[in-house]
Amino acid sequence: MDKITTSIITIGDELLIGQTIDTNSAWIAQQLNAIGIWVHRRVAIGDIKEDIMEAMAKEAAVSDIVLITGGLGPTADDITKPTLCEYFNTHLVQNEVALKNVLHIFESRGLPLLQRNIDQSMVPEACTVIDNMRGTAPGMWFEKEGKIYVSMPGVPHEMQGMMENYVLPQLAQHFRTPSVVHQTLVTSGMGESFVAERLVAFETKLPAHIKLAYLPSYSLLKLRLTAFGDDKLTTAAELSILFHEMKEILLDITVTDQDIVISDVVGRLLLEKGKTMGTAESCTGGYISSAITAIPGSSAYFKGSAVTYANEMKMKLLGVKKETLEAHGAVSEATVREMLAGALKLLEVDYAIAVSGIMGPDGGTPEKPVGTVWIAVGDATKAVTVKYQLRYDRERNIQMTAVYAMNELRKLILE
Amino acid sequence: MDKITTSIITIGDELLIGQTIDTNSAWIAQQLNAIGIWVHRRVAIGDIKEDIMEAMAKEAAVSDIVLITGGLGPTADDITKPTLCEYFNTHLVQNEVALKNVLHIFESRGLPLLQRNIDQSMVPEACTVIDNMRGTAPGMWFEKEGKIYVSMPGVPHEMQGMMENYVLPQLAQHFRTPSVVHQTLVTSGMGESFVAERLVAFETKLPAHIKLAYLPSYSLLKLRLTAFGDDKLTTAAELSILFHEMKEILLDITVTDQDIVISDVVGRLLLEKGKTMGTAESCTGGYISSAITAIPGSSAYFKGSAVTYANEMKMKLLGVKKETLEAHGAVSEATVREMLAGALKLLEVDYAIAVSGIMGPDGGTPEKPVGTVWIAVGDATKAVTVKYQLRYDRERNIQMTAVYAMNELRKLILE
């Protein structure tokens, strides 16, 4: 069983100065992984000819496939395409299909065409052109000395279209790839080292072709088992037995045995029970609501939210009492209890989440420092409140609060 | 002026299978850039000894600094630390400070200590230990043959603490770095190639040490000028003149001349004018509200949102008429107009945004396909409505809608 290996090269100064976060590599890795191809190196370099040439040669020396993203586009073509020509010892020619595509896009958008847009349809003669259904820059497929090179634009949805329509099917056909199977268990409420302690005996007996990875994700912990094998069904069956064994060991702390986010876990529970939910958010400002509705089909169980950032809105929309705010403050157990009751009534839902806290960097006091947050979850008959003292920056405090709150709701629904 | 160069090596299978998006590299690059150090390569590899050894040697051959993140932690130590020992020809010893830190963390959290936690305080003898104020895994600083190597945990806030408290000050002291100055202009309403066409003469005359980058970001376009020089003040002055020249050329399409997100642009405008805002969101599910409140201090101008995912909530909270929904549907100009009016009244704000659309993947009809979205922005006296037909996936459709809506509000406020 030979492992088919890929290097991903991303071209663009914006990645090296930190202006852009590279989401393409993760997406590509997931897709390749699903067809049994392993990404073993990812390299990011700038728009510099020598660096591109060197990276291509180095990565081709250690990988079967070199996937290149970025460095294309109407203002970036000047470096990447001539470099590809030099590397593959070829020259630029006009591609009819790519030109038609450029013309069509500009016509349908009613935009005048510029020379630099027409130039986008120039491609190295040695390549097979990959159509871009979502933009003007064509993709390019090269083969040289038994290695495959693919150059694609860095715009995520353009690259994804090319991968799905052309690159992935071609690669699957070209290589006889091993089967890779994953199963993921998500746990909460126990630290990585304690979980590892529980799994010592289990891990020891894992065969060499099955690996366990610990992936902490906010307040949750993902445990991913990966198996490699020649036959997909046999490999999946073997993995399944071990996965269930691991699940038994961690049953009391299991959130889900699927690789899904917590908002999806909560949503599936609500769907299953035919119940609805909503949120009353102060410090998270709609982040929880936005996470719940990021899941397709969430309209079946999610009715709405009252984002009450100002105290007057907490009173007006949710019926929080003025006396409560004055006696306990907006960040208090009493306030989130009233927000919860208000949300259940206002949004006419079975379950609600209410949160109020101080996410920073400012706004803390000695009694209620930055990071103080109160969460309430409940339904018509019961309510649970919890307080956290978070220690991160504003963005992460908000994300952590959302995960904690959704996990509390999950537990309450299961009670 | 010698460029000080860094390679970033990230260790961890989770990056190679796409389970985790690498946000550390972007953050590190930004910080290094600010002190004049250039990241010219980023490499991601798995938890494999040979790959780590090889990557360290290769990167040290082309860079002055090798920053390594990941591969540390109570369940991951087994590979990275012994590899570091082999590479630097040293062995593990107990570090007193790191041990005290581990003991302190476990005591303060009331958790029992495990042997694998104690082992986290073992470090290669050849390194200088970097204290971890936010977790149990210590960082490590090595020097070998004139090159600097730093190994840090992959947990973002732990790594960031080490960088800020130790690594960045040490690197700034160690190298005499060139000055790097950036200025960024954000534009809207004109495609990359048309902007480039306007800037042809300007770009042609840019000196070699000043670079212009085009960075499309959702519906906006960022134009970043970067200057390198020996003296910070002279470099900044030279850049400033060119930046203002560029701004003059693009004045009619300029969103902001600062490198800030659109929610921050809107927030600063509101602050300046002493006005307030709120949102009424259907398809974005609180995403716009969450983007606005992600900005520290947003409570000064943001009062709240009604996330009305269900039609009954559009009626109940925002006063959308039943007849309007029946005659035109939830995704219509008439509905967003009524949502806007309802939000202004309910939230008692000066300005509001209202959105309703079909974000996909399901829910489209022949008349209103997936991606149809109506946006309304306005105040007590005027309202502007726009319709978009988006062509992306659910996540991106939501993000695009949010940027479009906030940009429409920005234009309305400036009218």
How are the SSEs ordered, and which strands pair?
Two copies of one chain form a homodimer.
Chain A: E1 4-11, H1 13-16, H2 24-34, E2 37-45, H3 49-62, E3 65-69, H4 77-87, E4 92-94, H5 96-108, H6 115-118, E5 122-124, E6 128-130, E7 139-144, E8 147-152, H7 156-174, E9 179-188, H8 192-198, H9 200-204, E10 210-217, E11 220-229, H10 232-249, E12 254-256, H11 262-273, E13 277-281, H12 287-293, E14 302-308, H13 311-318, H14 322-328, H15 333-347, E15 351-357, E16 372-378, E17 383-389, H16 394-414
Parallel strand pairs in A: 1-2, 1-3, 3-8, 13-14, 13-15
Antiparallel strand pairs in A: 4-5, 6-7, 7-8, 9-11, 9-12, 10-11, 15-16, 16-17
Helix pairs in contact in A: 2-7, 11-12, 11-16
Family (chains A, B): Belongs to the CinA family.
Pfam families (chains A, B): CinA, CinA_KH, MoCF_biosynth
Organism (chains A, B): Chitinophaga niastensis
Oligomerization category of the chains in this entry: homodimer
Give the % helix of chain A.
40-55%
Shape of chain A: globular
CATH class of the largest domain in chain A: Alpha Beta
Give average pLDDT of chain A, whole number: 92
| Strand order across the largest sheet of chain A | 2-1-3-8-7-6
Structural class of chain A: alpha/beta
Family (chains A, B): Belongs to the CinA family.
Organism (chains A, B): Chitinophaga niastensis
Domain MoaB/Mog (chains A, B): 7-174
InterPro entries (chains A, B): CinA, CinA-like_C, CinA_C, CinA_KH, Competence-induced_CinA, MoaB/Mog-like_dom_sf, MoaB/Mog_dom
